[in-house]
């Protein structure tokens, strides 16, 4: 099946764009949400995390000890790379399993991932979209959505690849500023993907 990857910086509006695709009947795989789920449910992944970061990575009731893991990977690139090396392949497996459940008459699927480019996940997509928005607007939107301070948002933003780097790898763009309609841009891309999916040979 034709696969479209979609990404963007924090607060760029990638989830908002995905909701519009969903209205058009396109199934969306939310990689970041799935990653959180499988860190609790995927027994291979759970075993890998315990072995890498200790048994205390999980509470007795099976819930993830976010504080413990964050404490290890925060400002430790090697540990973060280790965690990603465990989580990303598990998310790829979950995506493959999810795709198996999608009916054949669906023209294409969308994979939303904050780290689409960083994780290498884009290589498994037929095409990619980068959602961008002006810095100040992203800051304002995330502060409102998450009820956090500008400093907290900036710290999260600082950990991501910047848009210029992502743009080099992206095939399509959605500009989510206050001038251009996100709905119209999604509709245009949808038409392009329908055509591409028709001629797509796996
Ligand atoms: P994250 O990486 O943090 O998950 P995201 O890229 O998925 O962010 P969204 O959650 O889609 O971003 O958008 C961030 C916030 O901005 C949300 O509260 C959303 O409702 C709002 N927002 C996004 N696009 C628009 C828009 N065009 N007009 C008004 N509000 C918007």
TrEMBL record:
Q: Name one Pfam family in it.
A: CoaE
Q: Which domain of life is it from?
A: Bacteria
The chain's coiled-coil residues are none
Protein's pathway: Cofactor biosynthesis; coenzyme A biosynthesis; CoA from (R)-pantothenate: step 5/5
The residues the record assigns to binding ATP are 11-16
Q: Where does it reside?
A: Cytoplasm
* Gene3D superfamilies per the UniProt record, alphabetical: P-loop containing nucleotide triphosphate hydrolases
GO CC terms of this entry: cytoplasm
Matches recorded under PANTHER family = BIFUNCTIONAL COENZYME A SYNTHASE-RELATED (PTHR10695:SF46), DEPHOSPHO-COA KINASE-RELATED (PTHR10695)
What is this protein's name? Answer: Dephospho-CoA kinase
What species was this sequence derived from?
Pedobacter terrae
Encoding gene, per UniProt annotation: coaE
